[in-house]
Design a protein that fits this description.
Structural class: alpha/beta
Order of helices and strands: HHHHHHHHHHHHHHEEEEEEEHEEHEE
Largest sheet: 6 strands, mixed
Number of helices: 16
Length: about 475
């Protein structure tokens, strides 16, 4: 195929009109029309400009059938093609190095050293990914942890090796080989100037054959294929991470809905609402960026940067407002809540070896010397959520509970009630009972604790709160073992 047909093929492939191409080359539309009809040829400088516009070499533009070669790109890549790519790079490297003077050679070695250092530094994010994956695998049963960790390390090392090789070869080829041949081409065209347009085509073709230029050809065989494989793997990894981003985005939207519903309940938290709105903007922008990367779409980075700055300001403001709101909060360690409405009470006669055994729930000892040798056990709970039994078995007072089930709605109700009072609980299960209180004289409480300690083999003095009352009023006392 001749130059004129290649030019027409490339122009249509870029979806450019003759007038568009003429504007890029700073010539008239009629000149482009003459070139494509074969009535005239462009000047040398225009031919080089055409190569830059369509990202092709002089050899491809002047001598090859580009349309036919495009159809053959889908053929399978053979081992001979791989050897041809490798030997081509080696041959061009030797020709480049042998033509360098001492200063250029020193600069070349220095830049190669810097490139190798950057590739070594690139190992750090891969090590971070490996550590993150190992932290996940460590949660799995020990029987499979070593196998998964070894496989994960092998996979990370292979990906890093491929990325390092492809990155080094690509940068080396574009930065050194193509740059060297650009200079070589320009020097050759400076030696000869064509005066007659009719002879320009033959002059350009003869010089291309002598130089054998492969300017700006970044397709280097199997390395290009491996690069595509690596890029595909990276996109799959990004898509996988994007699922988590989308999940947190939806959670943030749900959080905004819940925060707005609190306003109707009289619970106002401006800091939380502002944080969630800012998080939605940040995650939404991140989703757009990931989508554009996966599907090769352009990203408006200026807008992304503006959104990022706004979200950073929003996070700072929400953190400050949230601190001012939550500094008034306290932690509620008490048992029970407004839902603990029922009570079970039983009294027992004190014996030397008697102990109170509780299946679950906190226990409080209250000194009441008016009881004498009697022990009173009270349990506050809700019949809606559980059943409580207080029984004496041999030398134990056994307090047991049977759960009826606690719904999420009930927990949310207690949580919302605590927010109105600016309180948070350590364990919201305690809000539903059982709140066990043992009333006895100071001497009997000491015996009860000592008996329980001897049975379980654990020192419990002071483990449970102790309150002293007499005639219905509290007073200061000690409830330690004697």
């Amino acid at each position: 195929m001749s130059f004129r047909k290649n030019l027409e093929y490339l122009r249509k492939g870029k979806k450019l009109s003759q007038e568009d191409l003429a504007d890029k080359l700073d010539v008239s539309r009629q000149s482009v029309s003459k070139w494509e009809s074969g009535a005239a040829y462009p000047e040398t400088e225009k031919i080089l400009a055409i190569c830059k516009i369509f990202d092709c070499t002089l050899d491809e533009l002047m001598n090859q059938d580009m349309q036919e070669e495009k159809l053959e790109e889908s053929r399978k890549y053979t081992f001979n093609d791989f050897l041809k790519s490798v030997t081509g790079i080696i041959d061009r490297s030797i020709r480049m190095i042998t033509s360098m003077n001492a200063k250029s050679l020193f600069k070349f070695v220095f830049e190669i050293g810097v490139l190798l250092i950057l590739i070594a530094i690139m190992r750090l994010p891969f090590q971070y990914i490996y550590d993150a994956g190992a932290n996940i695998f460590i949660q799995i049963d020990n029987e499979y942890f070593d196998i998964l960790r070894a496989f994960w390390k092998f996979l990370i090392d292979i990906v890093y090796l491929v990325v390092a090789i492809v990155g080094f070869v690509y940068i080396y080829k574009v930065r050194f080989l193509d740059a060297f041949e650009d200079i070589e081409v320009k020097e050759i065209f400076k030696k000869k100037k064509v005066e007659e347009k009719e002879d320009q085509s033959s002059v350009v073709q003869s010089e291309v054959k002598e130089v054998k230029v492969e300017k700006r050809n970044v397709d280097f065989g199997i390395f290009g294929f491996l690069g595509k494989v690596v890029l595909f793997c990276i996109k799959c990894f990004v898509a996988f991470c994007g699922l988590f981003v989308i999940f947190f985005f939806l959670c943030s939207v749900a959080g905004v809905v819940v925060s707005i519903s609190w306003l109707f309940e009289g619970v106002v938290f401006v800091g939380i609402l502002l944080f969630l709105l800012t998080l939605i903007a940040f995650l939404g922008t991140l989703v757009v960026v990931l989508y554009n990367f996966i599907f090769n779409r352009k990203t408006a980075w200026k807008k992304v940067l503006v959104v990022l700055l706004v979200t950073l300001i929003g996070f700072g403001i929400s953190a400050g407002v949230g601190f001012l709101e939550f500094k008034e909060f306290s932690v509620n360690t008490e048992c029970g809540s407004a839902l603990t409405l029922d009570m079970e009470v039983k009294e027992f006669e004190m014996r030397d070896n008697l102990a109170v055994q509780v299946s679950n729930g906190p226990r409080t000892y209250v000194v009441d010397n008016s009881l004498g040798d009697m022990i009173r056990v009270e349990v506050r709970y809700s019949k809606k959520y559980s059943e409580v039994h207080i029984d004496e078995r041999e030398n134990d007072i056994l307090v047991s509970r049977v759960d009826k089930g606690i719904s999420f709605r009930d927990i949310y109700k207690v949580f919302l009630h605590d927010l109105k009072r600016k309180e948070l609980r350590e364990n919201y299960r305690d809000a539903f009972g059982d709140c066990i209180t043992v009333y006895a004289s100071e001497e009997n409480i000491s015996k009860l604790k000592q008996n329980w300690e001897e049975r379980v083999g654990v020192h419990m003095s002071g483990d449970y709160p102790c309150i002293c009352i007499e005639d219905g009023e509290e007073f200061g006392c000690e409830c330690e073992l004697r």
